[in-house]
Structure formats: structure tokens, C-alpha cells
Amino acid sequence: TNEEISCIGCGVTIQSEDKNKIGYAPASSLEKDQVICQRCFRLKHYNEVQDVSLTDDDFLKILNGIGQKDALIVKLVDIFDFNGSWLPGLQRFVGKNPVVLIGNKSDLLPKSVKHKKLIDWMKGMAKELGLQPVDVMLVSGAKGQGIEDAMKRIDELREGRDVYVVGCTNVGKSTFINRIIKQGSGVENVITTSHFPGTTLDIIEIPLDDERALVDTPGIINHHQMAHFVGKQDLKTITPKKEIKPRVFQLNAGQTLFFGGLARFDFVQGERNSFTCYLSNELDIHRTKLEKADELYKKHAGELLVPPGPKDIEDFPPLVGQEFSIKEGKTDIVFSGLGWVTVNQPGAIVKAYVPKGVQVSIRKSLI
Ligand code: GDP
Predict the structure, then answer these.
(1) Model ipTM?
(2) Which of 48, 193, 235, 300 allows an S-S link to 10, with CB 3.0 to 4.6 Å?
(3) Residue limits of the CP-type G domain (predicted)?
(4) pTM
């Protein structure tokens, strides 16, 4: 039958098809009188929130709902994939509510990078992207850096209101919230779930005081992220786990770099110069001549140029190139979800290739 089953924890409609989507419970558990979704199960037994993702429509519903409340919004972005993890249009949805912008995964950046400089850079980017945050912070949910300060600052800024944490999938929202739970409470069962008004979506509330809560909203899928084009194993390779070691290449015009078989960077025109690659340390960079690059990719993608592996290469979208001319100062060419290449040569022309559907962009250098 098609009878709908609801989770006893949060009320979400149960499904057994997709582990990463909201309301998942294994098929074997559906026989029981009381079915609990995986997310609530983890919460109940391990005091740990689990990552779930939403469709665009449901996410918009939540955002609209938040706009009608009096709340502080915490917007989490992945500092390693700033544009790719940006939620466009948030300012419009949150109404008059103040937004705090938090860059996560600060542990990935080289230690030499000054946090102050990075925060200024984030402020500039936010402005360009149409967001006016009341404050900008940097944290590492995984390592704990900056968490305590962020919690203090959030508590000041909320002025007695609820706090909503929003972010797209993969920014590290669950890790961040779990860190807050650990650091903030240490008490069992402090978390509750509740329905979001007007939807059947479960949200997670972590009490801040007797009346107010920190609310975890599900993450939205950002369709331009590289993460959607690679398998689980390959995602591990391209997701940096620790401090990125910049890799510097001296290139002449007419030389090409392949980042595994996932992306490609051509130095089309300009003086011999150095190019700094900020990518997962585990991702191989292969240098070749531009004139041979097409041929090399055709022959060796999936074997010499991995990931994607031999099995995945057949379904992998073709690489599409976009040319950029470097204007002034240090400039990053960003391969969304993969990393970036810093170019420091006004007048140079470069071409960046990514799988069709993935975002590539140019920005003022972050480092
Ligand atoms: P969510 O989808 O936003 O809930 O993200 P998760 O918390 O599941 O994290 C997504 C990925 O980013 C995982 O591979 C995490 O290990 C990683 N991650 C999360 N927070 C951090 C962090 O502070 N530093 C680093 N280096 N990785 C992180």
C-alpha cells in the first residue's frame, strides 16, 4: 500500500529509498509500530545531528518561514568553496532579521594566512554578493577553532531571539552543530526536534535558554557543486581533510595542468609566471603541453588522470572550458568544490575547464 508513515520523533514522512534525504528509515524498520527516522534515531541515541538535504522548494519554504520570525540567522559557508556554498538570495528571504556570516573549515587554509585579512575578504565578497552581515567570523567545526568565540558572539547578537543556522550541504553544518552541542551542553537529551510550521519538515532545536533555541535547518543541495559529479570514494580524495599545501608551478604560455581528470587549467597567453594551486593534497596535478592536452585527456582520463576512476569516466560530463583575462592584482580562478589557482599576472589569459554543470569563477585573491 501507499500508506504514509510518519516519524515518531519529528513527524517527517518516512521513506526508505535515499539515505541522504530527509525522513530516511531502513525498510526493515517499517514493520515496527513506531517508526523513527535515521536523523531522530542518531539524535536520540548519540546526541548527534545528521546531515540531511532538501529540495529547493522545501528549502524556500523554510527560508520564507524564517523571514516571518524574529530571529538571528547564522549563515554558514565553506571557506574552501566560498561561492559554491553561498546561498544566493538569502538576504531577500530573511527579511529584517540580522545575518551573521560564518566561514567554516578554517583549518584547511595555510597557517600563514591571517584571519583578519580573510575576514575582510569575506566582508568584501558578502557585499558583492548582496549580503550585509552584522558580523563575520571564521571557525573550524571539525577542529574547534573559533567555536567558543562564535558561540559567545552569537549569544550577544541574538538579543534573546532564536537562532537559525542555514547552509547548503557539505559546508559542515552538522559538524558545526555537533561541536556546539558538545561544547555547549555536555548534558544528555538536551536536543529536541519539532515541525517547521507549514511543512512536514523536521528541524532540530538546541535550547539556548529557557525559551529560545538554536535551530538546525536541513541543508540545501547546491547543484553546481563538484560533489554531485563524483562518487563517494572520489569525493574523499577531493575534499581536503587538513591544511592545504599550496603547490606552485612555473608555467610558460601554452602549458596545461590537469587536476586528476576532473578539471583542467590552460595558460593561454602571458609571460612565464608562477601559478599557485590550492587543492586537496591528495589530488594529483599533471602538467602537459596545451597542444597535447585534448589528446591526453581523451586517452588517459580515468587511468592516468584520476579521479574519476575507470568505471566512472563513462558517465562523467565532458569538460567545458571558459576563458578568463586577468585584470589587476592577484586573482583566483575557482573550480567550485575543488579549489583554486592563484594567478599574479595582469594581462594574462587563462582557460579553466570543469565538468559541464560545475561552476567556475574568477575573484580577487583570497590569500
Ligand atoms: P553538512 O552537509 O553541511 O552537514 O556537512 P558535514 O558536517 O556533513 O561535513 C561535510 C564534509 O566537510 C565532511 O567531509 C566533513 O568531514 C567536512 N568538514 C566539516 N567541518 C569541517 C571543518 O571544520 N574542517 C574540515 N577540514 N572539514 C570539515
Answers:
(1) 0.98
(2) 193
(3) 60-223
(4) 0.85
- Cα torsion angle, 38, 39, 44, 49, sign: positive
Q: How far is the CA of 18 from the centre of ligand 1 (A)?
A: 20
Question: Quick check: 181 and 189 in contact, CB under 8 A?
Answer: no
Separation of CA 345 and ligand 1 centre (Å): 34
141 in ligand 1 pocket by Cβ < 6 Å? yes
Domains and CATH numbers, the chain: 46-220 (3.40.50.300), 228-364 (no CATH)
Q: Is the CB of 107 under 6 A from ligand 1?
A: yes
38 lines ligand 1 (CB under 6 A): no
pLDDT 10s digits, 42-80: 877 777 777 666 667 777 777 888 888 899 999 999 999
Residue 316 region by backbone torsions, left for phi larger than 0, else alpha for psi between -120 and 50, else beta: beta
Identify the pLDDT of residue 71.
Answer: 92
